[in-house]
Structures are given as structure tokens and as C-alpha cells.
Design brief:
The complex is a heterodimer of chains A (about 150) and B (about 1000). Chain A has five helices and seven strands. Chain A has about 150 residues and is of the alpha+beta class. Chain A has one domain (about 5-150): Beta-Lactamase. Chain A starts with a strand and ends with a helix. By secondary structure, chain B is an alpha+beta fold. Helices cover about 55% and strands about 10% of the residues of chain B. Chain B has 46 helices and 16 strands. In chain B, strands 11, 12, 13, 14, 15 and 16 form a six-stranded antiparallel beta sheet that branches. Chain B has a five-stranded antiparallel beta sheet with strand order 3-4-5-8-7, with no helix packed on it. In chain B, strands 6-9-10 form a three-stranded antiparallel beta sheet, with no helix packed on it. The radius of gyration of chain B is 38 Å and the shape is extended. The chains are: A alpha+beta (about 150), B alpha+beta (about 1000). Chain A: Belongs to the adaptor complexes small subunit family.
Chain lengths: ~150, ~1000
């Protein structure tokens, strides 16, 4: 996997993850290309696109487009399932996820993604395990906050 | 601080610059705790990329966190390490990450493995030493860690499959367990056990099994199992199936699996879901090179996809078509591609496609131009074509492809009927083959040599062309192999009358004998442009020779003009100086003289290239694109290349006139059919004609002529004139031996009624024409009688034809004149050919004598039995007409076809009509397959090409030259037979006869 982008129907970027080093300018160009290409797709066409030597797999969930770029010889259907699994994970964590959840808690979305994918490869495919990891770090946060908010006497 | 950082990330993602916060992100990662640290790391990974200088500040933080006792901090550090880490800092943290491979917590181990995978990707040499640790990770008790390690293995095996063959069994076992559902339920995804793991393993297996039969055999079982387990219900199972199919087609093939995989592809292609259709097309593209027939099966779907509104689907279809392009359908496909180019807006696609179009179109069109334009062209056209080919374009890869394509197409042309190609084209072909055929690695130089030798043997090949061919042979010999053919050729031509030819033959012989000189003179793999040939124009290397000659008393060399003057002064005979013999003597001496062979023989061997230098470039990279329209038009008109038979031509023309889409016909279905016909044209009926020369009829007629009884029919004369080639000459040999038979038959003929007691059959058989009497004939069966005439017939099987002989016996006392006899058949083409006495089918029968009619029969349409229906009327007395019929089994038209296993392989793929059936095996023999095949060989005249284990391949041809291939495999006590042929119905008829033959036995 090369990169994962989430953007809204209006073309606003919501989340970006780059698995290979790319310069800033390049990133901007890719984002622009992706949004224009994916948004221009007709409703009843397939979920795969060619872009340079990469395959773009995109899927729309409500108002949000998930767009994943993979190498040419990768399995497209599998990539589609990666997107789906990520949505499931978000859904499980936020409970009926919507675009607003991701806007306001995007760092959480990143954390979930980090538990799910590492360096462009699937790390953990089990929903339960990913959630357990996220929850445990959330617990940590709460205990820290409790700790900090305790009167220091 | 954390909140601020989150906001900075948000600003950045909206496209506002927030570079001031980068340093704070690093600080937060360093100093924060818990979630703050995490946000810090996240911000760093989003803000900075691998080359950013601030990243160095992070190394220390990562080091500290890796050593932390807090699990979550270690996790965070490993995550950020596997996301982005400066390459030159890897050694600093590598020991710590390695240490984590032994961590008690599986999640840490897993992340460590993935971090190492990342390191392997960016700096493979730094993790060389821990390969055995990867093995340990593969055997980890936690499946998650094992899964993670597969990423590394996939990468390593992709780079070097040889090194990991020993692990195949382990991978197969793992896959078996996964497919069998042995993993914890956690790994299930939509109730499919660990799909990612499965796909990863399938991919690894396909790399391992590629071109390796023994390794492939290990995995057949598990592949079969995963095909069966994957029930069609969810996207993820389709993903697994697709990967399975790819794996099956990559590894060493096994027919059962291939069948199942083909079925899967069918399901994909026919699926209404567009994503699956796309994958189906992709799979087809992948497999079509091995099995073009599969594309034929789905041709209608492919045509539909070609008109699909979704450009992506359309493009994938074009990709598929690109793979099945051949000489016959190239114009249609290129047209489709250009059509797509007009609507496509994406630059990258355009570049890619233009390259393909150029590649396909260029060579093919040049082929057409050459074969049509032929010898009428100015010489600089082929020259500039070769120049373009040798200098190439800017891109090395493009050049290679273009040359490869040229080599491929020329090889197939030579396999066809090279006799019809114009001389200049043959020259171009031999140059290209000599220069570039080594690019195609699986092509053996020996086979190329043999093809070239065929060219030499042809009568109409001019001596100039022969020169080119010999030069190509010289270059080919550099490979070292197949010197014997070259030797043989050079011996033939070394005594040629043509001096230039003789020189080439000399060169060839020397190179063939002396490999050292060979490698020095014609170094392999050098680019022409990069090597500078310093041709010594002053011929200084000859100085020694000259001075020796001078010392021996030879006259000093005078330039031609001086000589002319002297001659004029002397008023002697005005002799031209020996323009040709001079360089020859020099070059032969240069070869003998080991000291300085290079410059001169180089210049002769490569004179074609040097010649090109002065030539204007007609087709530059842009140039030919500009001219494309005009040339394409001519090509359109000239599409029928000499390779095709007239009927095919007609078909092709028809489809061409239909394909332009601007005139929609009322029946779009029909149009699609036609488009399909033209697109898949070459796949279905290719090479039926061109694989074997048309030696059959000509040589046969030649025999008749050789008999020399003065009864040469007009038709015979015509054909033998037009088709007089070497096969005729060969054909004349057997006729000589038959002459003795002729005498014997004639002497018998003198007194046919010597022994009236002998059976009628025997008596009639004596009337068999001389050249047929030596061959075995069928029983002579009575057909009918009319008044005093008795008709009987038999058929005689000859190597290249089937002759029907009809005897008309006149038992009356008076001669009967002009008996009209008509033969006709639905399935056969009946051709009357010269009888012994007269050349017309109407002849006289003397009293108590027998008239013999001969017909040569060819199958038009195969059928199990073929029948000839005839009418005869007796002109004497009351006019009376009698009908008769003569039935023959199809087997009488079957002849063995001798070919090699490789040829069989290529032909097998090219044929479209097939049939499969299980036949009974002869079971009482210790070797049932061999016994069964020998029965088939004996009874049906099939040629056994090869028997490999439990499989056998056979070949035969239906007169004339229509091949049929047979593949048999012993399976569950029966013989699974698969027949393929370019002729419809032929496989079905043949399988019927096979069945009969085995039942009777």
C-alpha cells in the first residue's frame, strides 16, 4: 500500500496516511488528482482506477470517500476489504461513525489506523484486538488525566 | 499542548502551512506522557518525511522509548519507526528492535517484525544478518507474528525464489491449516478464515512454484482445497479465488486445476458485479498468453466490455486485446485502441497506449508494406527501417520490446510460406533475425538457423538475399550452438559460382570452426552505437603481405585510373579491373591471418549497418506518427497478407468493412459477432495452412508427369508450373522407383483375360493404374450395373491424397463410346484427374475391356462417413441413368503428422475446435497407455508425438494439411482424450473413430 486518503464529497481532505516517503509538493498534487478523479466517477462504475503505475481503490461510505493506492500487482478486492475493515473498526469504536466523528476526533482515527496498518501492511485483522489496544491507550489517557487533575498536595 | 498540536495537524491537513509547530511536535513526543506522547508522534509522522532534518532529533526519543518498560511507549516507538525513520540512523536502533523479537508480548513481537520488514525495504543490506531470526518469527507460536513475518518472506522470495524452496512445505502446511479453519476465531473476517494470510501465502507459493514442477506438485492439493473452500458469497472470497487462479496459472500447470481455474475466471467475467468483471478481465489478461482459447470462450463478453461506459473496464479490455494481438487482428485492435485514445484524457494512459499502438502497428504495418510493396520499393525504405530498429528510440525498454516483437513476427512469417515474400523483405527479416533473435531467450539459434536454411534452399531466392541470409547465419553462430547446420550450409555454398556468396560461406565456415575468432570479431551484446569500429581505410595491416609479395617479385599496385591509362596507352585489351575478387582475396587472407582479422571481416559482416549511415531517417519517433494516417490507409486496403488463404481473406475483408462504428447497422448483435470474428480471428483459424507447405497436390501431379505417357492435362501443367518448387523435385524421386512397377503393371495389362477363372476382384485390381498398384487399396466393391456395363470402385490411400478408382467393365461385344459419369458429394471435393487412356472424363470402353477413372478426393467438411454420389448413363440403346453411391470412413483421409513436442505445443494453443471424451483403455496390457496408443496409431494412422508418464500426445492431419492434435491422459482407468483442430467437426468425427477402433480391438 502506498497511501490512504479520506475526503468528503466536496473534496475536503479528512485524513491522509502516506506509507512511502513523498515530498510535500507531490502530496499536494496527488491529493488534487485523487479528489478530482474519484469525484468524477459515475455512480455505477467499478471501484478501481489506474493512476500512473498505481491502482487506486476507492469506496464511498455516506459522504466520505476512502481512497487507497496500491501497487499494480496487488489484489484489488483485498484492498477494498481493507477499506471496509477500517470502516468497521471506526464504526465499532465510535459507534455508528459519521463524518463529524472523524473531523472532531481525527487523531483517534489515526490511532486506529496505526493499530490496523503498519508501514503499508496489514498488522492486525481482528476487530477485537485493535479495539482492545485503542481502549487500553484510552484508559491510560484517562488515568493520566485523573492523575493530573488530582489536587497536588 | 496536545489540543494545540491536534489543531496544528488539522490546519496542515486543510492545506495551511504550520511549519512553526514541527519542532513542538518533536518536543511533545519527547517530553509528553501517555496520550500526549502519542499525539506528538502522530504529528511528527504527519508533518515530517523521511528526509526532514528535524527527524534526527527524534532518534534519541525513539531510543529511549524502545527501552522503556511501559508497553504502550514501546508500541508507539515501534509504530513510528516502521512508519518513517531516517535510513542512516537504522544501525543505532537495530539491536533494540531485534531484541524485541524475543519480547513476551506478541503485539510487540509483531510490531518488531514489521519494523524489520520496513528496514528491509529501505536498507536490505543492513538486516542481512538476521535472516534466521525471521525464520524464528515464522515459527512463532502466535499466528499474528507469523503473519507479520510473511511480509518479509514475500518480499525476499520475490527477489530470490531459489533461496527459499525448502520452506515450501511449511507454507503449504500453514495454508492448509488456515484453510481448514485451525486458526483462532479472532482471525476470521466475515467468517472467512484469515483471508489476508491466505492471500499472502498464495502469493508466496506462486513465486516459489513458478517454473518448478517439483515444488508446484507440493501445492496442488492445497490449491484445490482452497478453491473448493472459497464459496462464492463475499468479496473477500472472490479476492482469495482470484489469487488462487493467478497462482494456478503461474506455477507449473496441472490440467485439472487449470480447468477449475478457468471455470472461476468464467464466473468472474460473467458476474453482473462490475468489480468482479474487472477482475475477471484482469485474470483473463494474465492467463491469455498460456491459453488463448479462454478468451475465445468469453469473446462476446469481451466485446460488450469494449463498449462499456466505464473507461477503466474499457482500458482493461484493450489490455487484454493487446495480449492476443496477432498478424490477423492487429488492424482491428489498433483501431479500437486509437478510438479509446480519442476519448481518454489521462496523460499516463495515453503514453502507455501510444507505446503499445506504435509497437503493434509499426512492425505489422511495415510487414504489410514490405510484403506488398516488395521489390518495387526504393532500397532506402528497408534501410531506414533497419536503421530505426537498430538505433531505437530514447527508451531502452521500448527498443527491446520493439525488437522482440519484430523477431517474433518474423519467425512466425518464416514458419509460414516464405516463398511468397518479396526478396527485400526476406533480406530485412534475415538481418533482424541475425541481429536480435538472441533477445528472445527461449528461441534456439538452431531453429532460427533451420528457418534461414529453408530460405537458402528456395529456388527463387536471389543471390543477394542469400548473402543476407548467410550473414545472419554468421551472426547467429556467435551463440556457439548449432554450428553443424552452419557448416553444412557453408559447404554447400563454398563452391558457389557467385564470388560474394562464396566469401560469405568462407566466413561462416571459419567462424563455425574457430570460436575464439568468433568471439573476437562479433562480440556479443554490444550496442552498435557504443562500439566504434575503426575501419582501417589505408589497409595498413596488409603492409606485411604486400611487402612480401613485392619481395617475391609481384608488380606494385596501381590505382585503377592509372591502370586504365596504361592500358589505353598499350592499346591492349580493355579489361575491367577485378572489382569483386580483390576484396575477397584480402578478406580470406585476413581470416587466415590471426593477427588482424577484426577490421575487415567486421566491415563485411556489418556492411548493412554501415551502409545505413548515409540514409535519411524516414521514420523518426515523431515522424512516423505524423505519417500514420496515410500509411494506415494503405495498410487497411492491403490487409490480406499472403499468409492467408483466400477464404480467410474474404472473411477478413467482410469484417473490416463492418467494423467502423460510425455506421450503426440495424443488428448490433451481428456487428458484435463480426467484430468478435475479426478480433479473435487469428486465434481460431491461425496456422492451419501455413504450418505445412502445400506440397501435396503438386508433387503428386509431378509424378504423373514424370510417367511421361504424353497425357498431361492442361490443369496439371498449370499447377506444376506455378508451384514448381523444391518439393516438386523431391516428389520426383519416388516416381523413379515406381517406374519399375509401371512396367510390370503394363505387361499385365496387355493380356488381362489370360486367366478367365480368377476372381473378378483380382481381375479388376490388375487394372489399377500403375502408380497405384504398388499401394494398398480397399476391396473392390460393385457399385451398379447398367445394361452391359458393370461399375465397381475402390479407394487407394496415398501419402498425400486419397484416390477413388472407378472401373467400368464392358461385357458387351461392341465398344461403348462416351459414357457420361458424374460424381458429386456434400462432404468431399471430387476432382477428376487424368485417366490412363484419355484426359477427359468421357471415354470409350472397348468391348470386354475395363475403363478406369481416377478421382482425387479431399474433405470439404468432416463427417464420420463421407459419401460420393454419382450418376452414370449408358449411351447405347434406350437412354438410362443409374445412380450409385460409395461410402468411405473419414479415417481414410487421416494421415500421420510428424512434429516435435514444441511444435505441438504452439499448435495446440492456436486451435479452437475441440472435444473431450473418455475412452476405454486396453487394460490387459502391462502398459495400457502405450498399448492403446499403438492401436490408435495402427488403425487410424495417428502419429505418436511423445508419451510422458501417464500422458500422451498424438498428431494427425486430414488431407490435405489440416492438422488435428490429440492429448490423452490415463485417468481413473479410462483414457481422457482431448482433441483439438482448426477444422470444425473434425475432432468429433475423429473421436468417434477412436472409440470404434478401441472397441473393435
Amino acid at each position: 500500500m502506498r497511501f490512504l486518503l479520506l475526503f468528503s464529497r466536496q473534496g475536503k481532505l479528512r485524513l491522509q496516511k502516506w506509507f512511502t516517503p513523498i515530498s510535500e509538493r507531490e502530496k499536494k498534487k496527488i491529493i488534487r488528482d485523487m479528489t478530482s478523479m474519484v469525484l468524477a466517477r459515475q455512480p455505477r462504475s467499478c471501484n478501481f482506477l489506474h493512476w500512473k503505475d498505481l491502482k487506486i481503490i476507492y469506496k464511498r461510505y455516506a459522504s466520505l470517500y476512502f481512497c487507497l493506492a496500491v501497487d499494480n500487482q496487488e489484489n484489488e478486492l483485498l484492498a477494498l476489504e481493507v477499506i471496509h475493515r477500517y470502516v468497521e473498526l471506526l464504526d465499532k469504536y465510535f459507534g455508528n461513525v459519521c463524518e463529524l466523528d472523524i473531523i472532531f476526533n481525527f487523531e483517534k482515527a489515526y490511532f486506529i489506523l496505526d493499530e490496523f496498518l503498519i508501514g503499508g501492511e496489514i498488522q492486525e485483522t481482528s476487530k477485537q484486538v485493535v479495539n482492545r489496544c485503542i481502549e487500553s491507550s484510552d484508559m491510560l489517557q484517562e488515568t493520566m488525566e485523573e492523575y493530573m487533575s488530582k489536587p497536588a498536595f | 499542548m496536545k489540543e494545540l498540536m491536534v489543531r496544528a495537524i488539522y490546519c496542515e491537513s486543510l492545506g495551511y502551512e504550520a511549519s512553526f509547530s514541527y519542532i513542538h511536535a518533536i518536543k511533545l513526543a519527547q517530553q509528553g506522557a501517555g496520550l500526549e506522547k502519542r499525539v506528538g508522534y502522530l504529528a511528527v509522522s504527519l508533518f515530517l518525511n523521511e528526509n526532514h532534518e528535524l527527524l534526527l532529533l527524534l532518534v534519541n526519543t525513539v531510543l529511549k522509548d524502545l527501552q522503556s518498560t511501559n508497553l504502550i511507549e514501546v508500541c508507539m516507538a515501534l509504530t513510528v519507526v516502521s512508519q518513517m525513520f531516517p535510513k542512516d540512523m537504522i544501525p543505532a536502533i537495530l539491536p533494540l528492535v531485534e531484541e524485541k523479537l524475543n519480547h513476551p508480548k506478541e503485539i510487540i513481537r509483531r510490531k518488531a517484525v514489521l519494523a524489520l520488514y520496513k528496514f528491509y525495504l529501505i536498507a536490505p543490506n543492513q538486516v542481512q544478518h538476521i535472516h534466521n531470526k525471521f525464520r524464528k518469527a515464522l515459527c512463532d507460536k502466535d499466528p499474528g507474528v507469523m503473519t507479520a513475518s510473511l511480509h518479509i518472506y514475500l518480499q525476499m522470495i520475490q527477489e530470490n525464489p531459489e533461496g527459499y524452496k525448502d520452506l515450501t512445505a511449511s507454507f503449504v502446511t500453514i495454508l492448509k491449516q488456515v484453510v481448514g479453519g485451525k486458526l483462532p476465531i479472532d482471525f476470521n473476517y466475515h467468517s472467512v478464515p484469515a483471508p489476508w494470510l491466505q492471500i499472502q501465502l498464495l502469493r508466496i507459493l506462486s513465486f516459489l512454484g513458478k517454473n518448478d514442477q517439483s515444488v508446484s506438485e507440493l501445492m496442488y492439493e492445497v490449491l484445490d482445497e482452497s478453491l473448493q473452500r472459497a464459496e462464492m458469497n463475499h468479496n473477500i472470497t472472490y479476492a482469495i479465488l482470484y489469487e488462487c487462479v493467478r497462482c494456478i496459472y503461474t506455477i507449473h500447470p496441472k490440467s485439472e486445476l487449470l480447468e477449475k481455474a478457468a471455470q472461476c475466471i468464467g464466473n468472474f467475467v460473467l458476474s453482473p458485479k462490475i468489480n468482479l468483471k474487472y477482475l475477471g478481465l484482469k485474470a483473463l489478461t494474465y492467463v491469455v498468453q498460456q491459453d488463448p482459447k479462454l478468451a475465445l470462450q468469453h469473446q462476446m463478453t469481451i466485446i460488450e466490455c469494449l463498449d462499456h461506459p466505464d473507461l477503466i473496464i474499457k482500458r482493461e479490455t484493450l489490455e487484454l486485446l493487446f495480449r492476443i494481438t496477432n498478424a490477423q487482428n492487429v488492424m482491428v485492435i489498433v483501431e479500437k485502441m486509437l478510438e479509446f485514445l480519442r476519448v481518454s484524457t489521462d496523460d499516463y494512459t495515453t503514453i502507455d497506449l501510444v507505446g503499445k499502438v506504435a509497437e503493434l502497428w509499426f512492425i505489422e504495418t511495415m510487414n504489410t508494406v514490405f510484403s506488398v510493396g516488395g521489390d518495387m520499393m526504393q532500397p532506402d525504405i528497408p534501410n531506414s527501417f533497419l536503421k530505426l530498429l537498430s538505433e531505437g528510440f530514447d527508451c531502452v525498454e521500448d527498443d527491446r520490446k520493439l525488437r522482440l516483437f519484430a523477431v517474433d513476427s518474423y519467425i512466425s512469417l518464416l514458419h509460414g510460406e516464405p516463398g511468397k515474400l518479396p526478396q527485400r523483405f526476406l533480406q530485412v527479416i534475415s538481418w533482424v533475425l541475425g541481429e536480435y533473435s538472441h533477445l528472445r531467450e527461449e528461441l534456439e539459434p538452431a531453429s532460427v538457423l533451420r528457418l534461414l536454411e529453408k530460405l537458402l534452399d528456395m529456388k527463387q531466392t536471389s543471390s543477394e538475399t542469400k548473402n543476407w541470409v548467410l550473414m545472419a547465419m554468421t551472426k547467429l553462430c556467435v551463440g556457439g550452438a548449432s554450428v553443424s547446420v552452419a557448416q553444412q550450409v557453408s559447404e554447400t555454398y563454398i563452391s558457389s559460382m557467385d564470388t560474394v556468396l562464396r566469401q560469405r560461406a568462407q566466413e561462416l565456415q571459419h567462424f563455425g570452426q574457430d570460436s575464439e575468432v568468433r568471439t573476437r570479431v562479433l562480440p556479443r551484446d554490444t550496442d552498435l552505437e557504443n562500439t566504434i569500429f575503426d575501419v582501417d581505410s589505408s589497409l595498413s595491416f596488409l603492409d606485411g603481405f604486400v611487402s612480401e609479395a613485392l619481395a617475391a617479385g609481384a608488380a606494385p599496385y596501381k590505382p585503377p585510373h592509372q591502370r586504365q591509362e596504361e592500358l589505353a596507352q598499350a592499346k591492349a585489351l580493355s579489361l575491367e579491373p577485378y572489382g569483386l575478387s580483390l576484396p575477397i582475396s584480402m578478406s580470406s587472407c585476413s581470416i587466415a591471418d590471426r593477427q588482424s582479422p577484426t577490421p575487415l571481416s567486421m566491415s563485411s559482416g556489418l556492411s548493412t549497418t554501415l551502409k545505413l549511415d548515409g540514409v535519411k531517417r524516414v521514420w523518426g519517433r515523431e515522424g512516423y506518427l505524423v505519417q500514420r494516417e496515410s500509411v494506415e490507409e494503405t495498410a487497411q486496403v492491403e490487409v490480406p497478407s499472403p499468409l492467408r488463404s483466400p477464404s480467410q481473406q474474404a472473411e477478413a475483408n467482410g469484417s473490416h468493412s463492418q467494423t467502423p462504428t460510425q455506421t450503426p447497422t440495424p443488428e448490433p448483435e451481428q456487428e458484435k459477432q463480426q467484430l468478435a470474428a475479426s478480433l479473435f480471428f487469428g486465434l481460431s483459424s491461425q496456422s492451419s495452412v501455413c504450418l505445412m507447405g502445400k506440397s501435396g497436390p503438386t508433387s503428386h501431379r509431378f509424378r504423373r508427369k514424370a510417367k511421361g505417357q504424353g497425357s498431361i492435362s492442361g490443369a496439371t501443367e498449370q499447377t506444376s508450373k506455378t508451384k514448381l518448387n523444391d518439393s516438386d523435385i523431391k516428389g520426383s524421386d519416388p516416381s523413379l522407383s515406381e517406374d519399375s512397377g509401371l512396367v510390370a503393371a503394363d505387361s499385365e495389362d496387355m493380356n488381362p483375360h489370360e486367366d478367365p477363372e480368377r476372381p473378378k476382384d483380382l481381375c479388376l485390381s490388375s487394372h489399377l493404374p500403375a502408380e497405384l498398384s504398388g499401394l494398398c487399396h480397399s476391396e473392390i466393391s460393385p457399385l451398379c450395373s447398367i445394361q452391359s456395363l458393370d461399375l465397381s470402385a475402390c479407394h487407394v490411400q496415398k501419402d498425400d491424397s486419397l484416390v477413388l478408382v472407378i472401373f467400368i467393365q464392358n461385357s458387351s461385344d461392341s465398344a461403348i463410346r462416351q459414357i457420361p459419369l458424374d460424381l458429386d458429394s456434400d462432404e468431399l471435393e471430387v476432382m477428376y484427374y487424368v485417366s490412363r487412356v484419355s484426359d477427359s472424363p468421357v471415354e470409350d470402353v472397348r468391348s470386354h475391356d475395363v475403363a478406369v477413372y481416377q478421382y482425387s478426393l479431399t474433405v470439404k467438411r468432416p463427417s464420420v462417413h463421407v459419401e460420393v454420389v454419382g450418376t452414370v448413363s449408358c449411351p447405347v440403346g434406350t437412354p438410362q441413368t443409374v445412380r450409385f453411391s460409395y461410402k468411405l470412413p473419414l479415417t481414410t483421409f487421416i494421415r500421420p503428422l510428424t512434429l516435435s513436442t514444441e511444435e505441438y505445443g504452439t499448435m495446440w494453443l492456436a486451435f479452437s475446435h475441440d472435444t473431450k471424451q473418455n475412452l476405454t483403455l486396453i487394460s490387459d496390457d502391462p502398459e495400457p497407455l502405450t498399448a492403446t496408443l499403438s492401436v490408435l496409431k495402427r488403425k487410424l494412422q495417428l502419429h505418436v508425438v511423445e508419451i510422458i508418464g501417464m500422458e500422451g500426445i498424438l498428431a494427425c492431419r486430414l488431407l490435405r494439411d489440416r492438422p488435428c492434435l490429440m492429448h490423452c491422459r490415463v485417468h481413473a482407468g479410462a483414457l481422457a482424450v482431448w482433441l483439438r483442430s482448426p477444422v470444425p467437426d473434425l475432432p468429433d468425427c475423429l473421436i468417434y473413430h477412436c472409440q470404434r477402433a478401441l472397441q473393435e480391438d
